[in-house]
Each structure stands twice: as structure tokens, then as C-alpha cells.
């Protein structure tokens, strides 16, 4: 067990954007120089370690950690940091290019912590690819791979369940697009990698829900969720929706809201907005674990096969995208 006195001994300098005395952020707990401009974000810590095995000169022994609490590992070819809130950051190189993988667990708040706090400690443009799992509301076989062209939000309307004035139990937002260039690079790399393995790669709109159960139309006899018509409502507003999960919209949305690239018709009036090079290019790909049409779930033996194909494609895509900081690498 970690030394609790050491874990909670830090002094933070601001209530607005807390940083400790070393410049580490409050949740992800990294500081400048520890996160690369090119990042894979996952929910699963084990998946993060699997991705890191593809980094240059990294062995499985390098990734064998005995500590369960906060820890830091740093040597010539890899950096690892687990925050006390279980954000895991691993930074190394892939084909000579600096890359990080950050495991954030699940849900929109965790995605928000991750994006804002990594953006704060990284200088210059970034490219972020989300790698996770999802369900499909189309007739697509489990074990397929989806690439999100965009994402929208599905949120529980909490007032509906406590007020007589509300008529809709769920709110469905407009869609927010991925970075077209990075999305196409990722899609093409996945198609190339999977072409001989009978793995279907599809692309389309993704819905991100604020819960795994109610906002994805799952039935739970213990609670009133009023979600019997939710799939119908989603399909009516977004006929191109193929997948549901819980994080991608947060990634795409915040990438659109960075100060240097924000382009809504009327610019923000706040005098505090700074025009700096903080662009974020985003894409997302998911393994289809659940088919909500025929109520089937992926067989476990398919998952390692998918992950192997997807990890290579994701890393190749990250080093192919030109961020203006170095020569673009060939996927070969």
C-alpha cells in the first residue's frame, strides 16, 4: 500500500486549475515533458500496457508493476505514472516518434479530466485517438471494428423524472465531427491491417451516452428509466448512428473548443481567451462488443485478435499525421 502521508502531502496553488508544487495536474497528475503530442487514450489499464509493448525497446518486464497505488517509473526508453485517481500515463517512442498512452477508466468526466489536463502540460498541436469498445444499434456483427466519423451526446433529462413540466426523458445533441484527415488515415490503416483476416471495418456516426444503462436503453427492473423509445429517438435524429459508447463525444467536442481553432460564427467575447497553438486533432475507433439489435455479445477469443490489429493501426496513424513538429513517418 502506498504511503498515505506522501500521497496526500502535495500543496496546490490554485482552486481554478490546481497544480502541485511540481507542476503536476490534479487528476491525471502529469507535468510538462511527461506526455507526448501524440496520444492513444483507452479506458482499460491492461489495454494501455498492451499498447506500450509496441513502443521501441520496451519489454513486458519493463511494464511489470508490483505496486497497486500511485507509482512512477522512468528510464531511458519509457516513462510511467499512475496517479492516485488511477489515471495511467505511459510515454515512449514508436518507430522513433514520441507517443503516449493514457488510461482514463470510463465516462465523460474522466475524458474531460484527461483532455484538459494533458492539453495543459503539452506544448504545441496534439493528435489523440480513442481506442475502446462499443455496442451497435445496426445489423453489424460483433467482432467488427468501427471508426467514428462524428459523435453526439445522449443525456438523461433528470428533471423529467422529478418534474411534471418535462416531456422528454432524454436529450440528444447535434453531432460533432472527428478530424477528417486523422479519421481517414485511421480508417485506411485499419482496412489495410484487417483485409486478410475477415474482420469487418465500418465507419459512421457514434452516440456517446452519460451512462451505460439508462442512456443506452438498457432495461433495469430496479429503476424507472423511461427509455423504451430511446433507440427510436436516436435513429430519428441521427439515422447514420451505428455505435453507442460513453466517451468519444467529449473528445471530439473539446477538440472543437480549443481557443486557437474555435470557429463558431461568433467568437467568444472573453478577454481571457488566448490564441496559442493548442490544436487537437481527434479520431476514435472501437471494437463492437455488443449487438443491441439481436442481443448478442462478442466471444472472448476474438478480443486479442482485434486488439493486435487495432493497436498497430492506431500507432501507425498517430505517427503519420503531420503536426508540423517533425517529419511525417511512413506506416511501413
UniProtKB/TrEMBL annotation:
Gene3D superfamilies: Nucleoside phosphorylase domain
InterPro entries assigned to the protein according to its UniProt record, in alphabetical order: Nucleoside_phosphorylase_d (IPR000845), Nucleoside_phosphorylase_sf (IPR035994)
Gene Ontology MF annotations: uridine phosphorylase activity
Any GO BP annotation: uridine catabolic process
Gene Ontology CC terms: cytosol
Nucleoside phosphorylase domain location: 84-256
UniProt-listed Pfam families: PNP_UDP_1
Protein known as: Purine and uridine phosphorylase
Organism field: Neocallimastix californiae
Amino acid at each position: 500500500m502506498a504511503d498515505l502521508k506522501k500521497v496526500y502531502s502535495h500543496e496546490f496553488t490554485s482552486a481554478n486549475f490546481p497544480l502541485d508544487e511540481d507542476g503536476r495536474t490534479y487528476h491525471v497528475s502529469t507535468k510538462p515533458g511527461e506526455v507526448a503530442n501524440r496520444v492513444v487514450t483507452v479506458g482499460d489499464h491492461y489495454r494501455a500496457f498492451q499498447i506500450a509493448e509496441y513502443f521501441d525497446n520496451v519489454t513486458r518486464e519493463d511494464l511489470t508493476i508490483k505496486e497497486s497505488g500511485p507509482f512512477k517509473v522512468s528510464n531511458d526508453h519509457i516513462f510511467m505514472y499512475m496517479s492516485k485517481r488511477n489515471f495511467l500515463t505511459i510515454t515512449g517512442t514508436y518507430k522513433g516518434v514520441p507517443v503516449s498512452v493514457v488510461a482514463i477508466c470510463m465516462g465523460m468526466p474522466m475524458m474531460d479530466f484527461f483532455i484538459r489536463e494533458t492539453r495543459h502540460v503539452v506544448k504545441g498541436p496534439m493528435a489523440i485517438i480513442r481506442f475502446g469498445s462499443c455496442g451497435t444499434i445496426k445489423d453489424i456483427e460483433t467482432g467488427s471494428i468501427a471508426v467514428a466519423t462524428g459523435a453526439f451526446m445522449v443525456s438523461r433529462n433528470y428533471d423529467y423524472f422529478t418534474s411534471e413540466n418535462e416531456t422528454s426523458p432524454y436529450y440528444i445533441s447535434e453531432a460533432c465531427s472527428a478530424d477528417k484527415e486523422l479519421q481517414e488515415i485511421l480508417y485506411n490503416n485499419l482496412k489495410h491491417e484487417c483485409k486478410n483476416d475477415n474482420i469487418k471495418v465500418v465507419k459512421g456516426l457514434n452516440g456517446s451516452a452519460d451512462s451505460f444503462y439508462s442512456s443506452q436503453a438498457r432495461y433495469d427492473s430496479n429503476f424507472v428509466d423511461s427509455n423504451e423509445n430511446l433507440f427510436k429517438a436516436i435513429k430519428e435524429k441521427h439515422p447514420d448512428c451505428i455505435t453507442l459508447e460513453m466517451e468519444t463525444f467529449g473528445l471530439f467536442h473539446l477538440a472543437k473548443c480549443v481557443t486557437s481553432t474555435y470557429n463558431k460564427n461568433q467568437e467568444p467575447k472573453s478577454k481571457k481567451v488566448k490564441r496559442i497553438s493548442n490544436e487537437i486533432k481527434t479520431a476514435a475507433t472501437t471494437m463492437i462488443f455488443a449487438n443491441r439489435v439481436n442481443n448478442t455479445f462478442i466471444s472472448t477469443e476474438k478480443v486479442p485478435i482485434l486488439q493486435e490489429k487495432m493497436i498497430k493501426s492506431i500507432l501507425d496513424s498517430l505517427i503519420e499525421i503531420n503536426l508540423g513538429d517533425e517529419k511525417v513517418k511512413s506506416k511501413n
